TrEMBL record:
Subunit structure: Efficient DNA binding requires dimerization with another bHLH protein. Binds DNA as a heterodimer with MAD1, MAD4, MNT, WBSCR14 and MLXIP. Can also bind DNA as a homodimer.
Localization per record: Cytoplasm; Nucleus
Sorted UniProt keywords: Activator, Cytoplasm, DNA-binding, Nucleus, Phosphoprotein, Repressor, Transcription, Transcription regulation
An example molecular function term from Gene Ontology annotations: RNA polymerase II-specific DNA-binding transcription factor binding
Protein name: Max-like protein X
Basic and acidic residues bias locations: 26-35
Protein purpose: Transcription regulator. Forms a sequence-specific DNA-binding protein complex with MAD1, MAD4, MNT, WBSCR14 and MLXIP which recognizes the core sequence 5'-CACGTG-3'. The TCFL4-MAD1, TCFL4-MAD4, TCFL4-WBSCR14 complexes are transcriptional repressors. Plays a role in transcriptional activation of glycolytic target genes. Involved in glucose-responsive gene regulation.
Region of interest called Disordered, as start-end residue ranges on this chain: 1-35
A biological-process GO annotation: positive regulation of transcription by RNA polymerase II
Residues annotated as domain BHLH: 20-78
GO cellular component: cytoplasm; nucleoplasm
Length: 189
């Protein structure tokens, strides 16, 4: 009868709707799992510590937990490296700034000498000036060398001010200059 045919069509329509929903859900779940699997495969390919080096075992995949842990470790390592590089850049920028300041000072000295090349020449010879300068610098360098560590710019900058305050006081410099002049005087006479 028509009623029986109608009931049969509704029942087969319901089953096919359920089947379609189930298939759609299964496909969606498969896509989700494939996306997750691809993500883990990509991580394993990108993170250097996830690469398999033991070829005697074959190409076994690492577990997802190990891939995640190695990825976390690698990201932490990269963060530390980035921080180290940022610190190095900061130190280099300070070095560049110090060198620029020194350059400006030397340029000013050269310009001053070019503007007045004969200033003071008639009194003291260049050799005598050099000997006085050398004596003063030797004395300062000896105290500097004994007091200051120059293994890194950071150590140098940390202790150079205390050295300047201790060894470059006006009275200390005056005593050094007088000592150098007495020494040169005794060499001359």
């Amino acid at each position: 009868t028509d009623d029986e045919d109608s009931d049969y069509q509704q029942e087969s329509y319901k089953e096919s709707y359920k089947d379609r929903r189930r298939r759609a859900h299964t496909q969606a779940e498969r896509k989700r799992r494939d996306a997750i699997k691809k993500g883990y495969d990509d991580l394993q390919a990108i993170v250097p510590t996830c690469e398999q080096q033991d070829f005697s075992i074959g190409s076994q995949k690492l577990s997802k937990a190990i891939v995640l842990q190695k990825t976390i470790d690698y990201i932490q390592f990269l963060h530390k490296e980035k921080k180290k590089q940022e610190e190095e850049v900061s130190i280099l920028r300070k070095d560049v700034m110090a060198l620029k300041i020194m350059k400006v000072n030397y340029e000013q000295i050269v310009k001053a000498h070019q503007d007045n090349p004969n200033e003071g020449k008639e009194h003291i010879s260049d050799e005598m000036k050099f000997n006085v300068f050398q004596g003063i610098m030797d004395s300062l360098f000896q105290s500097f060398n004994a007091s200051i560590s120059v293994t890194s710019f950071q150590e140098l900058s940390a202790c150079v001010f205390s050295w300047i305050e201790e060894h470059c006081k006006p009275q200390t410099l005056r005593d050094i200059v007088i000592g150098v002049l007495h020494q040169l005087k005794s060499q001359l006479y």
